[in-house]
Amino acid sequence: MRFARVHGPEGPYFAIQGADGSWVAMDSLGIAVETTPQLVAAADRVAGIDTSGIGGGVMDPDYLAPIVAPGKVLAIALNYLDHIQEQHLTPPENPIIFAKFPNALNGPDGDIVVDPRLTTRADYEAELAVVIGRRTRNVDEAAALNHVFGYAVANDVSARDAQRADRQFGRSKSFDTFCPIGPWITSADAVGDPQTLRLWARVNGETRQDSSTAEMLFPVAYLIHYLARGMTLEPGDVLLTGTPRGVGTFMDPPQYLQAGDVVECEVEGLGKLRNRVVAPP
Question: Per the confidence metrics, is the pTM higher than 0.85?
Answer without folding.
Answer: yes
